[in-house]
Amino acid sequence: MKLEQRLLAVAPWLLAISAVARTWVIVTGFGNESIDLYVYWSLAPHVLEGDLYQVTSPHSPPDFPLPFTYPPFGALVFLPMTWMFWGLAQWSFRLLSVLCLYWIVRVTLRLIAGERWTTDTRLWRQRAILWTAVLLWMMPVFHTFEFGQINLVLAAVVLAAMVARDQRVAGAGIGLTAGVKLVPAISGLYFLATRRWAAAVWSIVAFAASVGLGFLVDFNQAKQYWFVLFGDPDRVGPVATAHNQSLRGALSRTFGYDVGMSWPWLIAAVAAVVLAGFALRAAVRAGDALIGVVTVQFLGLLLSPISWDHHWVWVAPLLIWLVYTRIATWARITLLMLWCPVVFWDVIAFQLRRQPTIWTISRPGWLSAVGWAYPALALVTLVVIAVALAGTMRIRSTDLKDTVRPMNTVG
């Protein structure tokens, strides 16, 4: 704690240093191009021209022409950004992403702190600044900035919506976010698990509205996306590249071919759903909203055909939860020791340097094992959460009985 106190005293300076250092690395390297953000910026106007899914980004890599891969509603959301010239749009989005990272950290700490937030607000706000400085060095976060991705923005909206008390706000936030990018739709499981029926209904209504708006703008364009392109992950990118840290990506690298939704994937998917079900049940029983949200997001990342490594920004709130939540020491140490080397060392770049091209599926056995980094740890995390929270609940139950017995005896 003494170390934390010293770091908290200089937290604003640490954040400034981290931001400057990370910015320097990005603008002097590959990240200066922000190739994914350029896709949004350059192609979004085509949603009004009717050829959104026929064009590709002019700043694409030589071996991979980058198309617009989101629903038409996603392009409509990006339209205001296209009214700015490229440099302004690029830096505005980077600033927005930093603010969203801080917001994610702040909401995470507030959920963990509970009533302690109001009794020592200054301490928790200092921790939010310190954690933001630290998490800028987490690879999924760094790669989000490097590619100009929307992960931090979406995660901030999803987290805020899932813990919102107003059912309409919660549901609409998830529904509209899923309308931009489909994976957040998995968040509806949390509403069902916590019996927030109204929020679940509102999420469906909001999502349907986003889809309907896309059809209203251009019927044929929306029809092409939902009935032709929707089930084609190859259009999003090479399934077996090291960047893809979903179950399908890991299995494809292991088997040497795209497993699709065949028996290897089905077995892994069922296992993931079962483990996530136990973890979510334990989180709901423990009243731990944060880890319930993280559990659902991990499940979505595991089941999605493609989950780029920078999609795994949800590891950030998990790390904070592990540091401050009162759970079994073995669970805390195990997960921190497993996750920290993976997310703070660029294990993805390590693999990419050892594959001929991003389209190559076959891997040496040891390299395909390394390619399981995120999905394997996610599965382990679900198991540890389920066991640790169940154990915590039993301890609390025992403590409660021990407290109640003397009172009954005295009575």
Automatic annotation (TrEMBL):
Location of the protein in the cell: Cell membrane
Residues passing through the membrane, by range: 134-163, 169-192, 199-217, 263-282, 289-306, 335-352, 372-391
Pfam families: GT87
Keywords: Cell membrane, Glycosyltransferase, Membrane, Transferase, Transmembrane, Transmembrane helix
GO molecular function: glycosyltransferase activity
Main location: membrane
Topology of this chain in the membrane: Multi-pass membrane protein
Family the UniProt entry places it in: Belongs to the glycosyltransferase 87 family.
The protein, known as: Mannosyltransferase
Organism: Lentzea roselyniae
